């Protein structure tokens, strides 16, 4: 007669798994943002229909959409949009051409960094709007002054990011450049610039948003064209729907510019985890 031995381990029942509270899956960030936007616009429209706000001074989402359609059909939308885009484009070109090489030089030189760091910090911290009277005094109120304001508002965040990137270049890269007796210019161009690219694109993303703000502010105060001028003119004429339509275009433009630069940043610096 055979005896079957049952090991204690086999008789020990596995502890029952107590199901935890089921976590509700939330929609994505884009869906949540869209829901929040719809709720805010809906509350705004309901407030207008109920008479809680005066549409003469506040417009309404439906009125803004109608005005936007009228602007598009009449062709009055594109000239100010192109004027604002031109200011942002020219200002960003100048900021990139000046900010990247200057930032690399400052970041790789302890002397230049010590001399310029307080000035750059002060110029970045002080709102550029306070310099408007001086800029008008120097450059007038034409297109040149608007470009100066765009450059002024965009170059400092770019410069700060490039300097930070140049100061954080891996020492191993620089050591290799020294071993191969690379000149200072070649080191900046072939080592510091590629290694700083994530910081540069992060700076461009910040700079393009500030460039748009600078262009709109310049058009509000000293322009006779552009989306900022349309907002200022239509508000003065109590055409709040048209003014709100221009603001919608500015918002869409801001989102498109920043998302576009963010896509480029993700596309070309996917290998970096430093930014």
Please explain how this structure is put together.
- The chain has 275 residues and is mostly helical.
- It contains twelve helices and no strands.
- Helix 5 runs parallel beside helix 8, helix 5 crosses helix 11 (227-236) and helix 6 (110-125) crosses helix 8.
- The longest helix is centred in the last third of the chain and has 39 residues, at 184-222.
- The protein starts with 7 loop residues before the first helix and ends in a 7-residue tail after the last helix.
- 32% of the residues are buried.
- Mean pLDDT is 83; it is low at 1-12.
Order of helices and strands: HHHHHHHHHHHH
Number of contiguous helices = 12
Q: Given the helix and strand composition, which structural class is it?
A: mainly alpha
**Residues in helices, as a percent range:** over 70%
The biggest beta sheet reads:
none
The CA-CA distance between the termini, in Å, is: 74 Å
Give the number of DSSP strands. 0
Rg, rounded, reads 28 Å
Are there runs of 5+ residues with pLDDT below 50, and where? Answer: 1-12
- Proportion in β-strands: under 5%
């Amino acid at each position: 007669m055979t005896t079957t031995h049952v090991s204690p381990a086999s008789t020990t029942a596995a502890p029952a798994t107590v199901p935890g509270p089921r976590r509700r899956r939330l929609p994505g960030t884009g869906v949540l943002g869209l829901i929040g936007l719809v709720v805010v616009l809906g509350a705004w429209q309901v407030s207008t229909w109920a008479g809680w706000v005066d549409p003469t001074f506040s417009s309404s989402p439906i009125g803004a959409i109608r005005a936007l359609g009228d602007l598009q059909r009449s062709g009055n939308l594109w000239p100010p949009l192109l004027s604002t885009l031109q200011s942002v484009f020219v200002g960003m070109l100048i900021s990139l051409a000046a900010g990247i090489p200057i930032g690399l030089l400052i970041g790789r030189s302890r002397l230049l960094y010590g001399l310029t760091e307080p000035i750059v910090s002060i110029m970045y911290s002080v709102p550029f709007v306070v310099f408007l009277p001086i800029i008008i005094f120097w450059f007038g109120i034409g297109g040149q002054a608007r470009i100066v304001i765009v450059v002024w508002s965009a170059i400092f965040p770019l410069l700060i990011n490039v300097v930070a990137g140049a100061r954080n270049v891996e020492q191993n890269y620089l050591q290799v450049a020294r071993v191969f007796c690379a000149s200072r210019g070649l080191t900046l161009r072939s080592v510091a610039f590629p290694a700083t690219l994530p910081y540069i694109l992060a700076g461009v993303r910040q700079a393009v948003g500030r460039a748009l703000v600078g262009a709109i502010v310049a058009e509000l105060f000293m322009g006779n064209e552009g989306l900022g001028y349309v907002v200022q003119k239509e508000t003065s004429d109590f055409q709040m729907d048209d003014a709100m339509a221009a603001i919608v275009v500015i918002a869409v433009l801001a989102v498109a510019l920043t998302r576009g630069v963010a896509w480029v940043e993700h596309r070309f610096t996917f290998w970096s985890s430093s930014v």
